[in-house]
């Protein structure tokens, strides 16, 4: 099921938060600890910079590729089942594409099923830094997520 809302994604009350990630786990660096930058990862990092350290370690151990997802706790954020990081690009600043987003969605759905997740806050993956057209991602979300038993709160800024 899909519900569309506007606002700050880290304020949405769900069990799980989806973060569009790069394959390095970088989320804002030193500057992002003190200045709120644009983006989901940067909002997470600004609120709790320890998650970036954990994300970096996790991707080093996993050797992730585009389309993979990896899980971390949510630290000071209020997501009881944590944060699922969807790798939309390998290096920060790279373009993404619809095929990568589709693979991420398949992996997100599998994670939700395997972990009994009922509610998820999800941004429009790949539409920021990854430069994928919002309209194409919205259509993909409709195709992939609308029939799910999980409630996906699609958060648009």
TrEMBL record:
The keyword Thylakoid does not apply. The keyword Lipid metabolism does not apply. It comes from Aeromonas sp. Ne-1. It comes from the Bacteria. Keywords: Plasmid. InterPro entries: Macro_dom, Macro_dom-like. This is Appr-1-p processing domain-containing protein. Residues 1-157 form the Macro domain.
